[in-house]
Amino acid sequence: MAPQDAPGTGGLSQQEENRRLKRAVEELSILNDLARAIGASVNLQDIMRTIIHRSIRAIRAEQGVITLVDHRSQDVMKTLVRTMASSLESPQYHFSQSLLGWMHLNKKPLTVNDPRTDERFRGVQWDESIRSLLCVPMMVKSTLVGVLTVYNKRDGATFTDEDQRLLAIIAGQSAQIVENARLYEDERALQKMKEEVRLAATIQMDLLPKTPPVVPGYDIAGVSIPAQLVGGDAYDFIPVDDTHLAVCLADVSGKGLPASLLMANVQATLRGQTLASPTAAVCVQRANKLLHQSTSSDKFVTLFYSRLDTTNHTLTYCNAGHDNPFHFSGPGAPQRLATGGLVLSIMEDFPYQEEVIRLSPGDVVVVYSDGITEAVDPRQVQFGDKKIESVVAERRALGAAGIIDAIIGAVREHAGTAPQADDMTIVVIKRL
Hints:
Layout: H1 9-39, H2 44-59, E1 61-69, E2 79-86, H3 97-106, E3 110-112, E4 133-140, E5 143-153, H4 161-207, E6 218-225, E7 233-241, E8 244-252, H5 256-276, H6 280-294, E9 301-309, E10 314-320, E11 326-328, E12 335-336, E13 340-341, E14 355-358, E15 364-368, H7 370-373, H8 385-395, H9 400-415, E16 424-431
Helix pairs in contact: 1-2, 1-4, 2-4, 4-5, 5-6, 8-9
C-alpha cells in the first residue's frame, strides 16, 4: 500500500490551487473590463482616469497616477501630462523625478514597500504619508511613453509580487491605447493651430489694400508675398485728404505668426498717426514712441513712410532703418532715399528727419523689403540691390504693376529651386 499524504497536506495544496485559479479569473475579468472601457475612447484624460481607477481597485491601493513622458522635449526627464485619482480623501502625492529617472534607466516594474529605508532612493524626500508604492513602465516599441504608479496598499499591507505582475500587465495592455490617444490629441491640436493660422492669414490679407489707389497723374501698386502663411511685411496706402496720400512699407523682425501680430499693431498705429500728424517725420516719431511702449525689447520694425502731394508733385519721406528705396528720374543713376533715422521701437524718443523729393513725369519710386534683396539661389548668392536697379532700368516704361511683376519674376528666376526664406514686399509709385 502506498503511504498516505500527511494529514491536511493535500487540502492545503488544493486550497492554494483554488486561490490561484480564483485570482487568475479575477485578473482576466479585470483586464477584459479595462480593455472594453478604454478601447472605444479617444479622450486621453478619460482613458487615463479609467486606467487609474481600475488599477487602484484591482491592487487595493489608495491612490494612483499616470505620468506621460514628453519625447518632444530635449529634457528626457520632462513630463507631459499627469493624471491622478484617489480612492480615499488623501493628499495628492507628487510624482518623484527620482522614480522617473529610475524608470528611464531600468524600464522594469519597481516595488518599494519602505521608501525611507530603500537604498535605491537614498536621499530622496518622500511625502510623509507615502508608506509604499508600486511603479511600472508603459512601453511602446521599447520606448518609455509613461509610468503608472500606485501608492499605499490599503489596510496597511504591502505590495506583493502578484500586485506587481498584475499592474505590469495593465500598463502593458494600456500603453499603446494611451499613446494612440495622445497622438490623436496632438493631431487635433495641430489641425486647430493650422486653422487658426489660416484665419490669421486671411485677416492679415484683409488688412492690406484690396485695390491700388486711384490718384490722377500717378500709377501706384503694391504686393506682399509672405514666406509662410502669415508674414511680418506690410504696405499701406492711407488717404490724408484730397491731394495727399500716405504710402508706407514696414518690415517686422522675424517671420510667421508672431511677426504678423506685431505688424497688425504697426498698421493700426500708422493709420491712426497719419491722420493726427502734420508731417511724415512727426508721424514716424509718434509711431515709434507708441511701438516702443507696446513692443518687447527683442523686436523692432523697419519702415519707409512717405506722403505724396499730388498738387505739387512732391514726395516727403522718412526712412526708419529700412532698405533705401530707389528714385529713378531721368537717364542718370537712381537716387537712394536714406533720410530718416533709427528702426522703430528701439529708442522711445528719436529725432527723425524727413526729405522732400520732386517727381517729374516718368519718375519711378521703388520701395521693397529685404526679402527681395536677400533672396538666395541654390549657391546662397543673394539677389542684391544692383539687380533691382537693372530690372527697373530696363522696365521703366511699364506700369507700376508691370514693374513689380518684373522684379518678382527676376527674383524667382534667381532663386531657382531655393525656397523663399523671407517675406517679399514691393511698392511702386510712378508719375505718368
